[in-house]
Write a structure and sequence with these properties.
Elements: E1 9-14, H1 18-29, E2 34-37, H2 46-49, H3 70-75, H4 85-98, E3 105-106, E4 111-117, E5 122-127, E6 132-140, E7 162-165, E8 180-184, H5 188-200, E9 203-208, E10 214-216, H6 224-232, H7 234-242, H8 262-273, H9 277-280, H10 291-308, H11 312-318, E11 331-333, H12 336-339, E12 345-349, E13 355-359, E14 362-365, E15 369-371, E16 374-377, H13 386-389, E17 392-394, H14 401-404, E18 423-425, H15 438-459, E19 463-466, H16 468-483, H17 513-525, E20 531-534
Parallel strand pairs: 1-2, 1-6, 2-3, 4-17, 6-18, 7-16, 8-9, 8-16, 9-12, 10-11
Antiparallel strand pairs: 4-5, 5-6, 13-14, 14-15, 19-20
Bound molecules: ligand NA7.
Residues 145, 151, 153, 184-190, 207, 209-210, 329, 350, 378-381, 493, 498 line the site of ligand NA7.
Keywords: FAD, Flavoprotein, Monooxygenase, NADP, Oxidoreductase
InterPro entries: FAD-binding_Monooxygenases, FAD/NAD-bd_sf
Protein name: NAD(P)/FAD-dependent oxidoreductase
Length: 535
């Protein structure tokens, strides 16, 4: 339990996903004594854990990749337009090897606590193994969808068959052949994994509590010509993304939904539908803020579902009625709705017949008993705050983060938490991370935080902590921006609504990546006026 001997690290970065790895690379390049800690046995973060069959990113591969190194982006070849988990994990490993990043990491080290010593101005970070590491700065790149939730269903521990979590899928893979499989959860993960299970299993039962909208992924290999074109204009593509709403080169149309003639409106929606979920989520500039515009888009999606599903009673169950389209993340699928036309697939609508219990051999609902050999949980995450709050975090004066955030999280630009000097959280609450291309977002986040670390070191500043009033103002601002949209009308994980007892408050900044980035630039360029910098 003794801290490592010798001088503290300059910076400890927790997490070896896209964000953490980039941070470690930049910190090491800047000559900082950096340590990376990672719970998993290797790099990859989200893409290390979520290796369920069918896992695929909804952002185009050429955008969902690092931009910081021109040689890297010129030399790597993405085979598919929308990369699947194995290729993304290969890419992350390639980057880690190319820049020799693994040597900075201790893997299999889940961080369970961190506390700030006021007198020494040093953080001590504790891991599950009982190791302690001291550092001047600590950066939590722990992910915003990385704290999986196992549902609280009576009898769940008694199930005697095979239990699988999409968020902790076994590395060696799984066979469903001849099995009766149940999938609980119909978010992105459940919607991606189910069609693959359906092809193999004897029977698949999907347990749906809330229906979601899903758009087919228009995946295909990149052509050689496309690859050449992208390489030739990669810089410009990135420049276009750096201040774009979702950190990709794509934007919504400029014309509001109802300002277009019906035929043009349909054509626009068809075009965006064919471009995938991310594009369909922003056909019109007003679709996420004006309910009439939203309903136009909704009706289009509903017709698509109806056209794919043979049995219209099943289609009825698959159509969401509880939220405006897009206010819960639109999913990306490969044959999800069509899967319900197979004879071996059935849908159980838990709004009509709730699960009463899990037994050793299956699931009993209010209406029936379904025998199962395998149960797959695709039940989501304690989003945005879960990863941080599962760590016992104590800041200045021993204040506990869990207590400070009891009424909802308060941050300044996401990075800074008042009372937690020299600690930064990445892609956190208060940022547009979950609404944007996470890779470019991660680069922006780490560049910003490491610039502040460098500023402190250059100026002999011992501690930097976000000012309370700035954090309150930023949090009020992000809530105000959210109130102007339809997002606050859904019981989504953006609102914390999927976690029992969690304060319901909108967590991401929804004003767009570009606007967010401008706030961050201004703060940095003005010498960090909203941070208390103490020498
Ligand atoms: P999501 O989108 O949070 O989906 C979780 C699903 O699990 C959702 O359909 C939930 O229904 C369902 N769920 C959770 N608990 C239960 C219980 N107790 N009983 C029945 N159903 C339950 O997580 P994903 O992993 O699919 O996707 C997360 C994000 O990752 C995604 O948005 C992308 O950004 C990538 P609910 O809606 O709560 O009624």
């Amino acid at each position: 339990m003794h801290p490592e001997q010798g001088s503290p690290f300059d910076v400890v970065i927790i997490g070896a996903g896209f964000a953490g790895l980039y941070g470690v690379h930049q910190a090491a390049k800047a000559g900082l004594n950096v340590l990376g800690l990672e719970a998993g046995e290797d790099v990859g973060g989200t893409w290390f854990w979520n290796r369920y069959p069918g896992a695929r990113c909804d952002v185009e591969s050429v955008d969902y990749s690092y931009s910081f190194d021109e040689e890297l982006q010129q030399s790597w070849t993405w085979t598919e337009r929308f990369a699947a988990q194995p290729e993304i994990l290969d890419y992350i490993n390639h980057v880690a090897d190319r820049f020799d990043l693994k040597r900075h990491y201790r893997f299999g080290q889940r961080v369970v606590g961190a506390s700030f010593d006021d007198a020494a101005a040093i953080w001590t970070v504790r891991t599950e193994r009982g190791d302690e590491f001291r550092s001047q700065f600590v950066i939590f790149a722990t992910g915003c969808l990385s704290a999986p939730i196992k549902p609280n269903i009576p009898g769940i521990e008694s199930f005697a068959g095979e239990e699988l979590f999409t968020a902790q899928w076994p590395e060696q893979g799984v066979s469903f052949e001849g099995k009766r499989v149940g999938v609980i959860g119909t978010g992105s993960s459940g919607i991606q994994v189910s069609p693959i299970i359906a092809r193999e299993a004897e029977a698949l039962t999907v347990f749906q509590r809330s229906a979601n909208f899903s758009v087919p992924v228009p995946n295909r290999p990149w052509t050689e010509q496309e690859q050449a074109d992208i390489r030739a204009t990669y810089r410009q593509r990135r420049e276009k993304s750096y201040y774009a709403g979702a950190a990709t080169p794509h934007a919504s149309l400029e014309t509001k939904a109802l300002d277009l003639a019906p035929a043009e409106r349909e054509a626009a929606m068809e075009d965006r539908w064919n471009g995938g979920g991310v594009l369909f989520n922003k056909v019109f500039p007003d679709q996420n803020s004006d309910i009439t515009a939203n309903q136009v888009v909704r009706e289009f999606a509903v017709a698509k579902i109806r056209a794919k599903v043979d049995d219209q009673a099943v289609a009825d169950d698959l159509i969401p009625y509880d939220h405006p389209i897009g206010t819960k993340r639109i999913c990306t699928d490969s044959g999800y709705y069509e899967m319900f036309n197979r004879p071996n697939v059935s849908l159980v609508n838990l709004r009509r017949e709730a699960i009463e219990e899990v037994t050793p051999t299956g699931i009993r609902t209010a209406e029936q008993f379904i025998e199962l050999d395998t149960l797959v949980y695709a039940t989501g995450f304690d989003a945005m705050t879960g990863a941080l709050l599962r760590i016992d975090l104590h800041g200045a004066d021993d204040a506990r983060l869990g207590d400070l955030w009891a009424d909802g999280p308060v941050t300044y630009l996401g990075f800074g938490i008042p009372g937690f000097p020299n600690m930064f959280s990445i892609n956190s609450v208060g940022t547009p991370s979950v609404m944007a291309n996470m890779v470019l977002h991660s680069e922006q986040q780490l560049d910003w935080v490491l610039a502040l670390v460098q500023h402190c070191r250059d100026k002999g500043i011992r501690t930097a902590a976000a000012r309370e009033e700035a954090a309150v103002k930023w949090t009020d601002h992000l809530l105000e921006v959210a109130e102007g949209t339809l997002f606050v009308k859904a019981n989504s994980w953006y609102m914390g609504a999927n976690v029992e007892g969690k304060k319901r408050v909108f967590m991401p900044y929804i004003g767009g990546f570009g606007n967010y980035r401008r706030y961050c630039d201004e703060e940095r360029d003005n010498g960090y006026p909203n941070f208390e910098l103490s020498v």
